[in-house]
Every structure is written in structure tokens, then in C-alpha cells.
Amino acid sequence: MFVDGPAGRLEALLNAGAENATHAALVCHPHPLFGGTLHNKVVFHTMKALNSFGFPVLRFNFRGTGLSEGVHDHGNGEVDDVRAALDWLDSEFHLPLIFAGFSFGAAVGLRAACSDARVRTVIGVGTPVSPVAADTEEPRVYTFDFLHDCAKPKLLVSGARDQFGPRAKLEELIAAVPEPKRLVIIGGADHFFEGRLHELRAAIEMWVREQIVR
Questions:
Q1: How far apart (Å, rounded) are the C-alpha atoms in residues 90 and 56?
Q2: Triad 62, 65, 70: Cα angle to 5°
Q3: DSSP 117-138
Q4: Which residue segments constitute the domains of the chain, with CATH numbers given?
Q5: pLDDT at 140
Q6: What are 149-172's pLDDT values in tens digits?
Q7: What share of the chain is helix, strand, coil (3-state, %, to 5)?
Q8: How much is the pTM?
Q9: Rounded to whole angstroms, how far apart are CA atoms 163 and 126?
């Protein structure tokens, strides 16, 4: 399936929800120039965690990725891709929305989701709070100051060995944002939660039970 985006059609997959679903969810993938797509394992397991509650969950490929039209825009136009996906979910289901993003997907998606009144809670997985050196092929420096004004419930889940999310910087970030909030550090996990995906799913499911299902 495809979703209309600002730079052309966006390739997407929808995991259907229950007929009595109370929310719909969006999950965004990691950096497309480093192999990130909607089929990423972390994205898949995040989807499964949300879908387990009966929520329909949309995944899509950012512009220029897979069959999506357009070209990579270094995290700028991709924010508008997220907005287009949220618009599609809203028009299709007319339900409160949940946002989750992994790595690059968190960096650009949280920016769109936090300012969108339709989104009730946001989840950052492997949130890349530590800049990547500017001499790399694709310089990546993300700022999260906008989270200081985000009053929505916020969950950050990262691995203890995440090279893009040092624990000290994550703790500094979570301390500066308003409640409700939670930081979950999964012991032994790297950026891609290799061997720890079940723990990632459990952390997301616990958060959803507390903040959404109740």
C-alpha cells in the first residue's frame, strides 16, 4: 500500500487492529542511508508490541527508501513524511494516535508527534542523543530541545551499550522533560537490541498498559 506524502507516495504496511481498537499507532524506521527500512527488526518488534493491544499499526518507508518516492532530505522533509502518515491514520481510523520511532525515526518523528494534538503518547527507541562525527558520510546531529515543552506521556527505551545513546545523556534529557516520562535502559543491549528484542517489547507493553489501556 501507499500513503500520499509531500514528496510523493510513501510505501507503507498496515498491521490491522481489532474492530474495537481504542488507538492507532505509527512506527518509524532508522536511518535510510544505513539500511533502515520499515522491515527493520526493532521496528517490527515495536509494531508487534503495539499491535498486541489490538491497535492498527502503520509502518512506512521514508522518502527515497524502498518504493517510496522522493529523495532523502537529511531529516528535514522526513518530519513532513511523519505528519503525512499521522494524517493518514487519523483519516482512516479517527482514533487517538500513538507514535513510536527507532533511532533516526525517533529523532525526526518525535519532532512531528510532540506538536500534534492527535498523538496521545510518544515512544523513542534507541533515541540518538549522541551526535555522530561530522566527518562521516552522513553527518547526524540531532537536538531534542523540543521535548522540554512536550507534556505528552514519553517513554524512552535504549540499550545499556547503545553507542548513539549514552546513558548519562539520556538521563540528562529525561530529567529535563515534563512528566509523565520514563527511561528504560535494557542491560546488555546494543543500539539494535540484538538478543534483547523481547525485553524491548515488554518495556513498551508495560508503558502502554499504564498510560493507555488502564
A1: 11
A2: 75
A3: TTEEEEEEES---SPPPTTSSS
A4: 2-213 (3.40.50.1820)
A5: 62
A6: 999 999 999 999 999 999 999 999
A7: 35, 20, 45
A8: 0.94
A9: 10
